[in-house]
Amino acid sequence: MHVAILGASGKIGRIVVQNLFASNAVPFDLTLLARRTERLEGLMMDVRPAAFWAAQEPAPVSVRLSADPSALEGADLVLFLAGRFASPEEDAAFRAVDKTGRFVQSYLNHDLVVAMGQALAAYAPRALVVMVSNQADMMAHLLRESFPPASVLGFGGMLDRARFRQCAADAGAPQEGAHMVGFHTNAMRPLRSTLTLAPDLCERVLQRTRAYGRSVFELQKDASFPGLDTGPSILPGLALARIVRTFLGQAEAFEASFNVSLGKAVAAHYGVSEGSALSVPVRVRKGGYDPLTDYAVSAEEKAYLKDAQADMDDACRTMAARFSGA
Questions:
Q1: What pTM value is reported for the model?
Q2: Is residue 129 helix, strand or coil?
Q3: Which ranges in the chain are annotated with CATH 3.90.110.10?
């Protein structure tokens, strides 16, 4: 198996690599791509000794470092982490016209995703791609314009699901099977048939979940070290390492929420049109994934999901118009 990580030198990429080198169980090929390969060299020097701390000797990993997209050749799984954060001036300019903030990084990363989508289509046309770059749902939509739609997973729902479960546990009501559905914004909500929470407690947990990511970001910022990328969550890196291990057959299959392109039967189950793309429950397994239709969806939830799809479609059309010159 060949796993590639685009943007491997950033905070999330480093967490993925650290976890893989500490707990790898089967041999595989790993390609790390970043604009500055010296950062990748430093990362590998840093994490290779982790093998000596493992409970058992990890299986060998063949590592290639590159700044050239051709290194994606033959990849089976690609983690798309590449992108950049807005400067304070860029952030302020975007938020002046979009108070939701969802366009800030989407606009910044638009051209990169288009270019890398073309590279993926050329060098790794059969890969499964996990899109993490913000805004993950919109960037997954953009990537699907040049890459097989069913081969792209948008990451946002998995993050929301983990945080919802943590907030429920903090409230004394663990929800092991909870799934979040919709468009990865503050409007995402849990699927009622996956919960045992009373409605009023569910609402309190949901409100806490919606504030969770911002709290993580703000509390980790350090004004003493403005050059360090200290704000973003490390949770995606931990989750992505699990995805890699499962895809390789090192870990058991698991359920999570991902933005996926919905085929006819799955779309009908969730009350939206075929080809829609929303976060729904998914089973990640060795070599791929399966959208789930195991859980009941109420009429009210189907109406919500239609609205969520319309919201995502509007956001993507706005982004497309900006870059088409319309």
A1: 0.92
A2: strand
A3: 156-324
